[in-house]
Amino acid sequence: MAKALSSTLHTVSRLSRPSIPRTTRLTRFQTRPFSITPRRRLMETSGFTEEQLTVRDAIFKICANFSDDYWMERDQTETYPHELHAALAKDGWIGIALQEELGGAGLGISEATMMLQTIAESGAGLAGAQSIHANVYATQPVSKFATKDQRDRFLRKIISGEWRTCFGVTEPNTGLETLKLKTLATRDPSGDGYRISGQKIWISSAQVATKMVLLARTTPLEEVKKPSEGLSMFYIDFDRSQPGLEAKKIRKMGGRAVDANQVFFDNYHVPKDALIGEEGQGFKIILHGMNAERALLAGEALGLGYAALKKSTAYAKERVVFGRPIGQNQAIQHPLASAYMHLEAAKLATYHAARLYDRSNPSRPDYDPSITQHAVGVACNSAKYLAAEAAFTACERSVMSMGGMGYAAEYHVERYMRECFVPRLAPVSREMIMNFIGEKSLGLPRSY
Ligand SMILES: Cc1cc2nc3c(=O)[nH]c(=O)nc-3n(C[C@H](O)[C@H](O)[C@H](O)COP(=O)(O)OP(=O)(O)OC[C@H]3O[C@@H](n4cnc5c(N)ncnc54)[C@H](O)[C@@H]3O)c2cc1C
Asked: Carries keyword Flavoprotein (predicted)?
């Protein structure tokens, strides 16, 4: 990692390691007032670590170069926000949660969640966060399970911003029943790699990605004992100019700056070393990225919710009807106040989940072996659910409290409203999270 903000990131990464001797720079951070977040932000920042607050501060500074009008225009013209990705890559932020020896910052999902929340909260919304997030979460299983040689070849260019990644799991005919997915990777008869055939759907950023994390069957469903077996994870070149690969954009409700696609594989060739980890172990491997994704998406939902409340409270202070600001009426003030409290509660769940995820990683100095993967799964799913619902409440109440202007594009909350459905239904729907909690935490019979 080089360039302008690399020193901030190196400082942050040092701060994340309690075992590393404290440096002069660390002392400088310790003497700062506890909260470095400007007062204009709504979220209460007490209790966050100095690393998280430093990330928040630096990301807000970068995002300040991208105005609300920039995001409105990207949404309306369905144009990818390449400039944000370039600005974050330039300063080393894409590798926030990847190893330092690869050029990353070596931080955790706790700091990455703060980064994505901040991007969304800056006004970039879910579109801004989604233009970055697969590069952060989908690379987690690659960084953990790939060989050193694969990591070097695959991840350095993601961190530098030269390459971008997409995540290919969902299929049109299987939906949330991931274990039934049908895309097949068969050994090429020549002995050189695999041939991929099948279909994926809703793949974000497939129009701009150079790599894809792909979950495919290497043993057909009918031939395995358990559906979780026979799946393999690949990190493939996503080269749309090659035969056998096509990506078609899906028209959608919100987040229009970032494309979502149907992807068709027809005998598409990938080399042998695109396989990450062992053949047949792909489901276990990819789960590592899925829990991270839930924590990040929870952060993105929070950012969107706080962004909406910031707009609506500012409007409620200024808009005068019947001789007083509308925000002086409790019918306007109370729904916004309760939406704020829901966001604050979801914030606690989100950063608790991110902390459990990080501290369950044996390679970290703060590893806690008592944290089970079950606990991480419960926390990450719960956080995603709670943050998505809190964001929805904040966006809906913001639109309603602004009257007609809540519906006008130039006031931006209508864009946030359209975007806030995504964390409710992806990467796993709220119904499936309740099924999971009902079964795994409450011990009720499996309902699906
Ligand atoms: C904007 C966007 C971006 C996305 N990006 C990606 C991406 O980059 N990569 C990727 O792989 N996927 C991506 N997805 C896909 C997303 O993860 C899926 O849409 C999501 O997992 C839901 O799957 P589905 O749409 O097939 O719903 P379905 O599985 O068809 O389910 C439909 C509805 O039925 C409900 N339901 C089904 N079964 C049950 C049950 N037993 N009990 C209760 N309710 C049930 C579900 O909760 C849901 O509400 C994206 C989706 C969107 C909208």
From this structure: yes
37's tokens: 């977040």
Distance CA 63, CA 320 (A): 31
Task: Please write the tens of the pLDDT for every residue from 156-212.
Answer: 999 999 999 999 999 999 999 999 999 999 999 988 899 999 999 999 999 999 999
Residues with CB under 6 A from ligand 1: 166-170, 175-176, 202-204, 252, 255, 260, 422, 425-429, 431-432, 435, 448
The yes/no answer on whether domain 283-440 falls in CATH 3.40.640.10 is no
* CB proximity list for 443: less than 8 A, separation 6 or greater: none
CA 235 to CA 165: how far, in whole Å? 9
Which residue shows structure tokens 């109370």? 334
DSSP state of 200: E
Domain regions of the chain by residue span? 6-160, 165-281, 283-440
Say if pTM beats, i.e. exceeds, 0.85.
yes
Q: How far apart are CA 329 and CA 416, in angstroms?
A: 24
